[in-house]
Design goal:
The complex is a heterodimer.
Chain A (H helix, E strand, L loop, with lengths): L2 E5 L3 H11 L1 E9 L2 E7 L17 H4 L3 E8 L5 E8 L2 E6 L1 H15 L5 H7 L2 E6 L11 H4 L10 E5 L3 E6 L2 H10 L3 E2 L2 H17 L11 H7 L4 H9 L5 H5 L6 E7 L5 E8 L20 H13 L1 H6 L9 H5 L6 H12 L1
Parallel strand pairs in A: 2-6, 6-7, 7-8
Antiparallel strand pairs in A: 1-9, 1-10, 2-3, 4-5, 4-12, 8-9, 11-12
Helix pairs in contact in A: 1-6, 8-14, 9-11
Chain B lengths: L1 E4 L8 E10 L4 E8 L12 E6 L3 E6 L10 E6 L5 H7 L6 E8 L5 H4 L3 E7 L3 H13 L7 E7 L8 H9 L4 E6 L9 E2 L16 E6 L2 H13 L7 E4 L15 E2 L2 E2 H4 L2 E3 H4 L7
Parallel strand pairs in B: 8-9, 8-12, 9-10, 10-11, 12-13
Antiparallel strand pairs in B: 2-3, 2-7, 3-6, 4-5, 4-7, 13-16, 14-15
The chains are: A alpha+beta, B alpha/beta.
Chain lengths: 344, 280
């Protein structure tokens, strides 16, 4: 089975049955404009229409705070390398966030592999959901090509009126769907309806920046010394919000957290941000990106140029979170547009 | 939340013991370290290790011995004012435990150097990583042509590995010169920046590899002198200083443009990094 449908009247059944078997995380409204992935027990708690959650699903794949080692130095030096894992089902993941997880997968699978990430990833089932229209004006998913699904899920839901079309992408997806038992086989009409929707989306989702995506890495290369960075450097306050909410930012710090008594403790990994001044500091005190403009430029290059050179892939998903949370109102689309104006 | 043991974790340390500690200067100590399992660390000159003191943390330290030294390896650590890790390291004694991850990174391409002359330039603590190469070259001396070593440091009191340097000075198969920024009453050697030593060196630029290791400020000036001697950019190598947190090309701290210093370096051919702003 590759395609199925779920009547909307059965959604609550689907979620409740899933939640009875697995821990289900889904977008929940914190207030009318803020959403977060949280554990749910029923469909009523879920916001099916939502703008990207405050934190992307990366929080489940790469927790903000995670134990890498536990140590005990009371008798010699004993330690255990650990991975903290939790079996969950992520429901309602937008295509931009599916793309974000795919970026993280590349980095942590790149040798030397990061088993903490990879072991955890294998415990997470993903059910995506299609955006039939834009979430808001900050999204640039069409520029990045992430307004339509490109894999990265076990099941994918598309709202087609009074039912969801479900694309079943993996064995795990099929097993989960089977266990809930509340679906019907998709027919040719359902397929046609999906195709109609995708065609309609072509009229709605248009490249938001009017720049040829393939030219973007070159744009950032040419614009390395652009006044655009001076402007951003003057405005940026180095709060690091942009990196925290970014679905593809994965930089981290590692530190020891001793228990009381200091003989035992944990080695912890936490999210870090290239926007913090000490981030690129070295022994001797020299900082290689001491100016805010250097750090801002580095972050943008890490989304639009360096990963394209390294992995052949953009590390911006177009989710728009960095723009939504920026305390200095730095706008990603405007930044690209300004560079394009100068160097196109 | 379930906690699983992962034996193949890249964050797992190799248990190691400090065999001896030797004070080199007021701020630097030399640690001789062996892995507890009896194996050798299996490193190349120029590579680094992540060194752990549980409860304090981890720091990347260049391995300063040559892999031709069997059984143990050496780390030279400078205790700096606010350096929590390096100060804790200086409190350790022979018999104490440390953790080791690595070796990491790309070291000096010693096979490529074979049959060539070498021009090795170290500034300050840069002598530590370069010593791994110098001792390797000495132990395999017949594989290399003419060997020039230039060393610069702030004052004679800051000179590391003084006893070894005396030996290098005595050897007829090595041209060694050193200079200090500021002399001392009993100092009879050169006074001046390390760049002042380079014009006097007689070298064949077509057949020489130059290696530069030192504080960030030094590279530009030394490389200008080497270029002035007609050494092409692809025959100049540098070892870059960055704070590598994970050593695995993930944490982002040591990233220079698209390069991870911990995996792609710390040793780089100059022509690869010369156009990367902020690299040196």
């Amino acid at each position: 089975m590759q395609n199925a449908i779920l009547r909307k009247s059965h959604l609550n059944d689907f979620i409740s049955k899933l939640a009875a078997m697995e821990k289900v995380m889904a977008p929940v409204a914190k207030d009318p404009t803020h959403f977060a992935f949280e554990e749910v027990k029923s469909a009523k708690e879920i916001s099916l229409r939502y703008i990207p959650t405050i934190l992307p699903p990366k929080k489940y794949f790469m927790p903000q705070h995670e134990t890498l080692l536990e140590y005990d130095t009371r008798e010699g030096q004993k330690m255990r390398a650990v991975a903290e894992v939790e079996k969950i089902v992520l429901f309602g993941v937008h295509t931009c966030d599916l793309a974000g997880v795919q970026c993280l997968n590349i980095v942590f699978s790149d040798r030397p592999k990061d088993l903490n990430y990879l072991i955890r990833k294998n415990k997470i089932a993903i059910i995506g959901i299609e955006c039939n229209e834009y979430c808001d004006e900050h999204a640039s998913c069409a520029l990045m090509g992430n307004h339509i699904p490109k894999g990265g899920y076990d099941m994918f839901f598309t709202d087609l009126g009074d039912y969801f079309f479900i694309h079943v992408n993996t064995q795990l997806g099929e097993e989960l769907l089977d266990k809930t038992g509340v679906y019907e086989e998709a027919t040719i009409e359902h397929m046609n309806a999906l195709e109609d929707l995708r065609n309609k989306k072509k009229e709605i989702f248009k490249n938001e920046v009017d720049v040829d995506k393939n030219m973007i890495p070159e744009l950032f290369k040419k614009g390395f010394d652009s006044p655009v960075w001076d402007d951003l450097g003057e405005r940026c306050i180095s709060c690091g919000n942009c990196t925290n909410v970014c679905p593809t930012c994965y930089c981290f710090d590692v530190y020891d957290d001793p228990d009381l008594g200091a003989k035992t403790g944990k080695r912890i990994r936490v999210w870090d941000s290239c926007q913090n001044e000490p981030f690129a500091k070295v022994a001797g005190g020299e900082s290689f990106r001491s100016q805010r403009k250097d750090r801002k430029r580095h972050r943008f290059n890490r989304k639009f140029r360096y990963p394209v050179e390294r992995y052949g892939k953009f590390f911006c998903t177009g989710c728009g979170r960095c723009t939504r949370v920026c305390m200095a109102k730095i706008n990603l689309k405007d930044t690209i547009k300004s560079l394009a104006k100068e160097y196109k | 939340m379930e906690k699983m043991s992962i034996n193949r974790s890249a964050y797992k340390i190799k248990e190691a013991k400090i065999l001896s500690v030797r004070r080199l200067t007021d701020s630097e100590k030399l640690f001789d370290i062996a892995l507890q399992n009896g194996e050798s660390l299996d490193y190349e000159p120029g590579q680094f290790a992540e060194v752990s003191i549980f409860g304090v943390g981890e720091a990347p330290i260049s391995i300063c011995s040559s892999p031709t030294k069997r059984g143990s390896f050496e780390l030279c650590v400078r205790a700096v004012g606010d350096g929590r890790f390096t100060n804790a390291m200086h409190k350790l004694e022979a018999g104490d435990d440390v953790g080791i991850r690595g070796p990491f990174g790309v070291g000096f391409p010693v096979q490529l150097f074979e049959g060539n002359d070498l021009m090795l330039v170290a500034g300050g603590l840069g002598i530590a990583p370069l010593r791994s190469l110098i001792n390797y070259v000495i132990d395999n001396r017949r594989d290399f042509g003419k060997v020039n070593i230039l060393l610069g440091c702030k004052t004679p009191l800051n000179m590391l590995f003084g006893d070894e340097i005396e030996n290098w000075q005595k050897r007829i198969d090595i041209n060694f010169s050193c200079t200090v920024d500021r002399g001392a009453p009993d100092w009879k050697g050169n006074v001046g920046l390390i760049t002042s030593l380079i014009p006097g060196v007689d070298l064949d630029p077509e057949n020489t590899f130059a290696v530069v290791v030192g504080p960030p400020v030094m590279y530009k000036f030394v490389i200008r002198e080497l270029t002035g001697k007609n050494i092409p950019d692809h025959r100049i190598l540098v070892s870059l200083e960055r704070h590598m947190k994970c050593g695995l090309g993930k944490c982002g701290h040591c990233q220079i443009h698209n390069i991870y210093c911990c995996q792609d370096g710390p040793v780089f051919f100059y022509d690869r990094i010369k156009d990367l702003k902020g690299a040196i």
